[in-house]
C-alpha cells in the first residue's frame, strides 16, 4: 500500500526522552499510527508488524490504530526507527524533511528491532552503564545524585 509518512513527537515519547536507552523509549519510537480503514486494507490489526519503506530504507514498526490519522497517511514518532527511513537531505537547513515522505506499508511477521539495534547497525557503539557510587536502588532503577546535575534515573 502506498502511503505518505509523517513524523513528530508523541506525549509518551516525550516522557521517555531522557531515557533513550530504556525499553519504553524503544517501544514508543517503534510504533506507527495508522487509520483503522488502512489497517483493514493491509490485513493487519493493532499490534501487528508493518514494514514501512521509503527510498532511503525500510524499518518494521508496530501498528497502532488511530482515527485521527487521515487514510493514506502513517504517523511515526521521531527516533531511531524513523531516522532509519527518513532521508538525510537537508536542503541547507541542517534538518531533513520529517513530513509527507512517500513510502509504502505492508504487514510482516518480523518484530521491530530495538533502538539500540538500529543505532549499532548504523555504526554507533553501545556504551557501558556508569559505575554507581552513593546511590539509592528502587526496583530495577537507580537514582544517581551529583551536586552539579539534577538526579539521573538509570534503568538496569
Verbal overview:
This protein is an alpha+beta fold. The protein folds into two domains: 124 residues, Barwin-like endoglucanases; 30 residues, no CATH class. 19% of the residues lie in helices and 35% in strands. The chain has five helices and nine strands, in the order E-H-H-E-H-E-E-E-H-E-H-E-E-E. A six-stranded mixed β-barrel has the order 1-5-2-4-3-6. Strands 7-8-9 form a three-stranded antiparallel beta sheet, with no helix packed on it. Strand 8 and strand 9 form a beta hairpin. The radius of gyration is 18 Å and the shape is globular. The protein starts with a strand and ends with a strand. The relative contact order is 0.22. The C terminus is likely disordered.
Give a topology summary.
Blueprint: E1 2-8, H1 11-15, H2 23-29, E2 31-34, H3 36-41, E3 49-53, E4 58-65, E5 73-77, H4 80-83, E6 101-108, H5 115-121, E7 135-138, E8 141-146, E9 149-155
Amino acid at each position: 500500500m502506498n502511503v505518505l509518512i509523517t513524523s513528530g513527537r508523541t506525549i509518551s515519547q516525550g516522557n521517555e526522552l531522557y531515557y533513550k536507552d530504556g525499553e519504553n523509549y524503544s517501544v514508543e519510537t517503534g510504533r506507527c499510527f495508522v487509520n483503522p480503514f488502512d489497517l483493514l486494507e493491509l490485513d493487519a490489526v493493532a499490534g501487528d508488524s508493518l514494514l514501512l519503506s521509503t527510498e532511503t530504507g525500510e524499518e518494521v514498526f508496530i501498528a497502532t490504530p488511530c482515527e485521527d490519522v487521515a487514510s493514506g497517511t502513517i504517523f511515526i514518532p521521531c527516533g531511531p526507527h524513523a531516522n532509519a527511513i527518513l532521508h538525510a537531505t537537508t536542503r541547507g537547513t541542517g534538518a531533513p524533511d520529517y513530513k509527507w515522505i512517500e513510502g509504502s506499508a505492508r504487514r510482516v511477521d518480523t518484530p521491530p528491532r530495538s533502538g539500540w539495534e538500529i543505532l549499532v547497525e548504523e555504526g554507533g557503539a553501545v556504551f557501558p552503564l556508569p559505575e554507581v557510587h552513593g546511590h539509592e536502588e528502587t526496583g530495577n532503577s537507580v537514582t544517581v545524585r551529583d551536586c552539579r546535575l539534577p538526579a539521573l534515573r538509570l534503568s538496569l
